[in-house]
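Researcher: Please predict.
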Amino acid sequence: MVELAEKKIAFVLLLNLLCSTCIVLLNKWLYTKMKFPNVTLTCFHFIATSTGLYICQLMNVFSPKRLPLKDVLPLSVTFCGFVVFTNLSLQNNTVGTYQLAKVLTTPVIIAIQTYFYDTEFTTRIKATLIPITLGVFVNSYYDIKFSMIGSIYAVAGVMVTAVYQILVGSKQKELQANSMQLLYYQAPLSSLMLLVVIPIFEPVISEGGVFSGSWGFDAIRLVLASGVIAFMINLTIFWIIGNTSPVTYNMFGHFKFSITLLGGYFLFRDPIQLYQVFGILITVCGILAYTHEKLKGQASPKSKLQTRV
C-alpha cells in the first residue's frame, strides 16, 4: 500500500511538472507565433477550469461550500489581474525573464505581511531575499530582448499575485474553505469579468479577434489543449498539497522552474548572456536558501514565522 501511494504521488508530481512546463511554452507559442489575443485566452482558461471543477464536484472529488459573493469578489478581481498580467509578461518578455520575475512574488509578500499585517520573519529569511532580488535584476538588465512594457507587466503581475495569494490565505481561514472550494466560485466569476472587458481591450470580430474566422485548426487545437492543461495544473496542485505538503510542492517547484527556463531557451531560441546565467544562479541559490530556512522554521516549535509564504 505504501509503495502504491508513493507511485501515485510520483505520477501526480510528474503530471504537474509536464502540465506546468507545457502551459508556459504553449501560451508563449500562441502569443508570439500565432498572435492569439491574451485576455481572450485567459478567459478561456477560466471557463475550462470552471467546467472541470463542475465535473469534479459531480464526481465527488470535492464538496462545494456556499460562500458569500462579497467575500469571493475581491479574490476574483485579483485572480483576473494576476493571471492577465503574468500572461502579458510572458507575451512581452523572454521565458527566462518571465520565470525569474515571478520569483519576486515572495519578497513582495513578505514586505506586505511585515508592514501591513505585523507578521514577523527571521533575519535569515529576510537575508535570502537579497540574492533572489539581485539575481532577477541582473538577468533583466543583461537581457538582450529587454522590454520596458514587458517589465511593467511583470511588476504589475508580481504585485497583484502577492495580494491574491495573501487574500487566498486569509479567506481560506476566514471562510473555512479549501482552495478548490474557493476556485469553484472564483473561476466562473472571473470568466464573466473578462467577458465584459475583452471587447474593450481586444478585437472580437475584426481581424485578429477570436471570432474573426482567421484561426485555423492548429490554433484552435492548441487553445483547447491549453485550457485542459490549465485545469489539470489547478487539480494536481490541490492534490499534491493535500496529499503531501506545501513544502513538498514548493521544493518541486524549483525543479519546474529550471525545466521551464531550459525549455524557453531551446524552443524559442532566446539569447542568453553569461551575466544572465550568473543572475539565474544567484536567484536559484536565494530560492534554495529561502526554502532551507522555511524548513528549519517549520521544524522548530519556537519559530517566529507565523504565516506561510
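Model: The CA atoms of residues 26 and 222 lie 7 Å apart.
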